[in-house]
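Re: [ENG-882] Designed sequences occasionally contain unexpected residues at chain ends

Forwarding the minimal case from QA. Structure tokens:
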């Protein structure tokens, strides 16, 4: 599931160049969706903060797939309200992803960190590796990296304290290529630290043609820590071996 109490965002790094959420927001605005009447400008949806409370069956929820919860345009009080909902819905697992790691680190002590809230940062190339250090400084019980779109090598990731790494190539029009050596390097680093490794896709203009196999297999590992009722219900629990 996705849950978008915030929509819209401001681009801050090369990983944002071909933002899928921006493209989708433009289409939704053209279709007349009232949630996207502002296009991709950051917009708060106060009426959606309580949405997960209505989901009784345990779910894995990607928070703000169409935005970034920790961008400057989102007030601390709004972030705290989102976290309050996540705390009070322990049946769900919430995955929060940000590129604003500096603000995440600054606000972390003002937020609750229950086991069902997984915190991640996007790391597309070596220029933004500092985001990993910021993430590691937080009290989040499960910390993960999204190396997607992977547009450069990441041979020296500071993986201490990290539980999960997702890797994927860029897809869609103008997609930048991903080198297999970059992927293999990250996989080997994950093995050295016994961290769950999830390979999402090779990407490309037609990602359906390139698939998601690496070394003749798929990698669908998930962190063994913080196992929730949502994971138990779906059976999607893996760990690095």
């Amino acid at each position: 599931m996705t849950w978008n109490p915030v929509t819209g965002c401001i681009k801050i790094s090369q990983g944002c160049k071909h933002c899928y959420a921006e493209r989708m927001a433009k289409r939704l605005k053209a279709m007349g969706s009232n949630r996207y009447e502002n296009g991709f400008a950051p917009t708060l949806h106060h009426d959606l903060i309580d949405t997960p409370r209505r989901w009784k069956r345990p779910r894995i929820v990607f928070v703000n797939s169409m935005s970034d919860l920790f961008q400057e345009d989102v007030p601390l009080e709004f972030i705290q309200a989102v976290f309050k909902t996540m705390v009070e819905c322990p049946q769900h697992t919430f995955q929060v992803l940000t590129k604003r790691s500096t603000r995440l680190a600054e606000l972390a002590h003002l937020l609750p960190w229950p086991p069902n809230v997984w915190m991640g940062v996007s790391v597309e190339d070596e220029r933004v590796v500092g985001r990993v250090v910021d993430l590691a400084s937080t009290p989040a019980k499960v910390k993960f990296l999204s190396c997607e779109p992977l547009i450069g090598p990441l041979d020296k990731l500071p993986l201490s304290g990290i539980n999960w790494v997702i890797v994927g190539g860029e897809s869609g029009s103008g997609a930048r290529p991903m080198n297999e050596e970059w992927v293999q390097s990250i996989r080997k680093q994950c093995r050295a630290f016994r961290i769950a490794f999830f390979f999402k896709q090779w990407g490309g203009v037609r990602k359906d043609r390139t698939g998601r196999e690496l070394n003749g297999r798929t990698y669908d590992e998930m962190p063994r820590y913080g196992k929730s009722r949502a994971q138990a219900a779906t059976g999607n629990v893996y760990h690095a071996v």
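QA comment: On inspection the terminal residues look reasonable. Residues 67 and 80 are 16 Å apart (CA to CA). Proposing we downgrade this to a documentation issue.
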